[in-house]
Amino acid sequence: MGLNGTIRVGEKSPLWSAQSNSGDVNLADYLGKSAVLLFFYPADWSDVCSDELPLLEELVTLAGKVQLKTFGISSDSVSSHNAFARDIGLRLITLISDPLQKISEAYGLAEAEIHSCKRASVLIDSEGMVRWVRVEPHLEDHRPIPEIEKALEMVREWNGLSGSIEQWREERQQAVQLPRFQPLSAPETLTVRFWGTRGSIPVSGLNYSRYGGNTSCVSLTSDSGHLFILDCGSGARELGNFLLDNPQAFKSHCRNAEGQAEAGISGYMLLSHTHWDHIQGFPFFGPVFQPNSRFNIIGWSNCSQTIGSIMAGQMEYVYFPVGMEDLPSNLSFFSIRHGSIELDGAKIQGRLLKHPTPSTCYRLELGGKVLVYATDHEPLTVPDNLPDTLMDETIIEKSILEMARNADILIHDAQYSIKELQQKVGWGHCSVEVAVDTAIRAGVRRLVLFHHDPAHDDATVDGLLSAALARAACFKNHNLEITVAYDGLALDL
Q1: Over the stretch 357-378, which tens digit does the pLDDT of each residue have?
Q2: Looking only at Cα atoms, what is the longest distance across the chain?
């Protein structure tokens, strides 16, 4: 044993048996068959544990086809574990109940004074030898993801896979690609459809009849079967109905784990962030209730925002009668970091922008066309008066100019007028004037004003369009087309 009795690398793991949310578990049953990774954590539903366990599960899933069993261990009861796993969407990590702290004591990880255990990670090889141990200095500290990656690198090497972290990260990018029998052909036509264009909350009534009241949801489709969904607000319900009415256009072209063809709808969801107006339509998105439908759901994940757990969280029984684990479709969750990935021939880049919960801007390049989706962000600073020259990079973030460069269509947050923006600094949104200046500076062909304020009726949105056209006219920019998004709008890219 090491300092304070903590088990050390090179020692034999103690054997134990316990109850879990998946039945009785005996560590000896796994020896000689697979490695075992133990995540000791203080308690179900604590903020850190609720956030990090789904992310740890995501990393383990992306480790590839390895012989590895993963357990989470705390003093909570089996019934607590059952509810906790359901709430945060755990499927792979089995939760062990250690009410008397016998297991944590055996590894020297018990915190008797608070009837809990240290936040620690232990990797055991198939022979029962401890090969890696990490104990966090404080209970509230997250486990550093690079350290977990190192442990999983060891497991990959034991299973004959590359131990190179760079190659593994490349494989993780490839894992996001849907398992198609053959690549989709290059598209001849691309269509952008707007199913929800409102921000914050859905609205209804005669005053919203032209621009609509559903919250954010946009699709990019092609004549060869591409399907990219940008956000999943309440507009996703109408999108789901459209897909179910046209199943042949978006049929899976995918294979299941047994190599058999899947007959459902397949595609990708790209989430800018997880505020409710961008995910609230998911429980009403019809294709996820269809067997053999397959969606890879992509967003920004870290220890405080995990896509899978948040999506599952809004489907807890107290909010919705069907849990994530009850859906018959095949759903996978992935995080996108700075850089790019390629999916079905589309090059996709993601970049975080300024928002209370950081929002991801996406750039999709497919078939020689470029679509940029940049909702829910605000400028770096807000000018006291509207400048008579194009706003510079003290106002417009450089990264969005880079992302929007020469785009065919830029979908840009335009929730406010410049006067409203001056009164709502920190709310995470832009004015139409900022959107216009961004589009002109980036050389965009068509700007689509998006994410309308729920307080803005049709007449107010008309006024914002007029302000945008007037701003563009100031700079005699005759090449920029400006469109206001509305529910049902379809544009050829």
Answers
A1: 778 899 999 999 999 999 999 9
A2: 76
